[in-house]
Each structure stands twice: as structure tokens, then as C-alpha cells.
């Protein structure tokens, strides 16, 4: 790779973002699914699209700039679209493996390996692959993802496992699969999955067209409590498993007990001074949009700013910029205000909506090495 780009993040630093600790590149906007709740809605392109992608050299130059400026990265996650549809994903992954990045991940829809050549990538290139799946049966999964997707996702998980990759799953909970939530624990444990990362579908993106899939606040809290109780009672049966459960809705006392803070607060004051930076391709659709939280992706003027094709970042001075909005409401969940998601909570329920990134993490006991 001889060609390089000169990235200029001067305007990021001028607005208080001195170090990027987490870098999440949306390397392509191409995707072969259109899930019922996807927040990427208007950004996604056809699976064979090779236009709305990050050029490999542009990506590598940006990654190097961030690592050099911040003394390495704490975490990086390949995202999309579907990242394995990027024509050069194998090279990009190997390039990232050579940089000072403490944790490297990729989130995939699991519909296949596509352009990723596992024979040319070491399992050490990623700390884990996060595969998205929404059910423990075809019936519960396919209704929100795609017909026959369950079978393909299960096969893809098997391919990653056979190649030696550590696999986690991203599981979006809707009214279509909430009744079987506890079943995720034995099902994915048996498949060798190490982390179950739960999400609750939010009233956002494609979900505006499918509002019936959204779980109301009371039902979510009840399901969350039952899952926590199941894990506390049966966790020892499923050793070595981590389950991350989003709160989404909390009482005022829970907010105090957990010391909840919006994602902007936690990033802005992180111990290592590292912020999260989400970057879209600098194309006519991606526009080089940059965010801190995926909660606000797609909302008009909520971005931190944009990076042009030459690598220059320009700050967004609109009042909806998530950090500007945060400066006005430091105790609020910024995305709830910007996207008006406060409507998901009835005043009489005594609940507040919090960031979907704020989660309860439960770990089952480790298996005895002697067994």
C-alpha cells in the first residue's frame, strides 16, 4: 500500500475530542438483508454495490492516523452494511491486525462469508466475530430478518468456529421472539458462543414501518427480570458465557444505583480519554458522516461532523449535533431527546428511557480446566 491520505482532525480536537479510543468504520453500505428494525434504513445499498465503500487505502490511512495521534486504539469494530461484502475485507482485516489495537471485532449478519477468505486470515486478527441472529428457530428468526436466513446464519457460525474464531451473537429482541428469550442461553452455549449481546428493537429506522414488533416498556422489564433470574438460577449449567442485557427503561432509583450516564458522558470522560468515532464512507450516500453513538444515526444534523474524501473532518455546528445536544441536557439520554423516543414511556409508569448501550453484564462461572 503506497498511496496514503493525509487526515486532518483539527476540528474534532477543537471541540474537545482529543483522543479517539474506539473506531467503528462502516466499511461498506452494501447489505443483503433488510431487517424489520434496521436503523440504517436509507443508507443501505444493494449487495453487489462496490461504489459506496471505504477505499482500502483511505481506511488504512485513517486507522494509522488515529493510532498515531492517540497512542493506539482501545477497540475497533468492522461494521456495515454487511462488512464481508466489501471486496477487500480480507486485506482490511489483516491490516488492522498489524496495528496497535487492543480489541478488534467485526459485526456480520451471518448470511455467508462473501468476500472474506478465512484461509488468509488468522483467528487472532479478531478478538471475536459478532454474528447477528434473532431466534433459536427458523420461525422466530426469519420473521424479522429474511426467509431461510436462520439456516444460513447457523452454517456461518459453524464456519467461523471451525476456523478458530471466537464467536458472539447480537440478538435483537422483538415481539416475535421475546417469549423464547431464556432459550437463547442453552441454545447458543451449545453452539460454542461466548457472548450473547442482547438488543431491544427501538422505534427507529425500518421499525417505523413495523411498529408491532416493538416491545413496550413494562413487557421488556418483565422479560429482562425473568432472564436475569434464569441466569442466576441456572448459570452454572452454562459455564464461560457472558450475557449483556440492555436496561432501556429504568426507574429514578435504578438510575442512581447504577450511576447511569449517557454514552456521550461516558465517552467524553472515559478513563483513558478515548472517544468513540463512527465513520461512514465518504460517498454520495455515506457522506463521510461521523457519530459517537449509533443511537442517532440517520437523524438529521445529529452527526458530529463529516470527513471528506481527502480526509478532512469538518465539525457540525447544528444544535442537533449529539455533543452539542448533550451539553444542554447532561443527565438525559441524548438520542431519546433528539429522536423523540420519550414517547415509548407512559408518564404514569415512572420510567425513563436510557441509552441502548447501557447494559447489565452477567457472566456464568468458568468451566474447571481439569474437566
Structure description:
The protein contains eleven helices and 14 strands. With 371 residues, the protein is α/β, with parallel strands linked by helices. Strands 12-11-10-9-1-2-3-4-5-6-7-14 form a twelve-stranded mixed beta sheet. It has a two-stranded antiparallel sheet with strand order 8-13. The radius of gyration is 20 Å and the shape is globular. Helix 2 (56-70) runs parallel beside helix 3. The model has no long low-confidence stretch (mean pLDDT 90). The longest helix is centred in the middle third of the chain and has 18 residues, at 217-234. The protein has one domain (10-363): Alpha-Beta Barrel (TIM Barrel). The chain has helices at residues 10-14, 56-70, 89-97, 138-142, 149-162, 184-190, 217-234, 252-258, 263-268, 322-328, 334-338, and strands at residues 19-28, 75-80, 104-108, 128-132, 167-173, 195-200, 242-246, 249-250, 274-279, 289-291, 305-307, 313-315, 352-353, 359-363.
Amino acid at each position: 500500500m503506497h498511496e496514503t491520505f493525509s487526515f486532518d482532525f483539527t476540528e474534532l480536537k477543537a471541540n474537545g475530542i482529543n483522543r479517539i479510543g474506539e473506531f467503528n468504520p462502516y466499511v461498506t453500505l452494501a447489505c443483503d438483508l433488510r431487517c424489520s428494525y434496521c436503523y440504517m434504513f436509507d443508507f443501505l445499498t444493494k449487495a453487489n454495490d462496490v461504489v459506496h465503500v471505504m477505499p482500502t487505502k483511505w481506511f488504512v490511512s485513517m486507522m494509522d492516523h488515529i493510532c498515531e495521534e492517540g497512542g493506539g486504539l482501545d477497540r475497533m469494530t468492522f461494521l456495515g452494511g454487511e462488512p464481508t461484502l466489501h471486496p477487500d475485507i480480507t486485506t482490511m482485516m489483516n491490516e488492522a491486525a498489524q496495528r496497535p489495537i487492543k480489541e478488534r471485532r467485526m459485526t456480520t449478519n451471518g448470511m455467508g462469508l462473501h468476500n472474506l477468505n478465512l484461509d488468509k486470515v488468522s483467528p487472532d486478527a479478531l478478538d471475536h466475530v459478532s454474528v447477528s441472529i434473532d431466534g433459536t428457530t427458523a420461525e422466530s428468526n426469519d420473521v424479522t430478518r429474511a426467509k431461510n436466513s436462520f439456516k444460513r446464519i447457523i452454517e456461518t457460525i459453524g464456519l467461523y468456529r471451525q476456523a478458530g474464531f471466537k464467536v458472539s451473537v447480537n440478538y435483537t429482541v422483538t415481539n416475535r421472539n421475546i417469549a423464547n428469550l431464556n432459550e437463547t442461553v442453552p441454545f447458543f452455549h451449545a453452539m460454542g458462543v461466548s457472548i450473547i449481546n442482547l438488543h431491544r428493537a427501538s422505534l427507529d429506522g425500518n421499525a417505523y414501518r413495523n411498529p408491532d414488533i416493538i416491545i413496550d416498556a413494562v413487557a421488556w422489564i418483565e422479560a429482562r427480570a425473568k432472564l436475569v433470574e434464569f441466569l442466576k438460577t441456572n448459570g452454572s449449567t452454562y459455564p464461560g458465557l457472558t450475557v449483556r442485557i440492555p436496561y432501556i427503561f429504568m426507574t429514578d432509583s435504578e438510575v442512581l444505583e447504577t450511576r447511569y450516564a449517557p454514552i456521550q458522558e461516558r465517552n467524553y470522560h472515559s478513563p483513558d480519554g478515548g472517544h468513540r468515532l463512527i465513520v461512514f464512507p465518504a460517498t454520495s450516500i455515506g457522506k463521510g458522516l461521523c457519530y459517537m453513538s449509533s443511537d442517532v444515526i440517520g437523524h438529521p444534523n445529529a452527526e458530529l461532523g463529516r470527513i471528506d474524501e481527502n480526509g478532512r473532518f469538518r465539525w457540525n455546528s447544528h444544535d442537533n449535533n449529539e455533543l452539542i445536544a448533550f451539553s444542554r441536557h447532561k443527565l438525559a439520554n441524548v438520542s431519546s431527546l433528539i429522536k423523540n423516543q420519550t414517547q415509548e414511556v407512559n408518564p404514569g409508569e415512572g420510567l425513563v428511557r436510557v441509552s441502548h448501550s447501557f447494559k447489565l453484564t452477567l457472566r456464568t462461572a468458568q468451566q474447571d480446566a481439569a474437566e
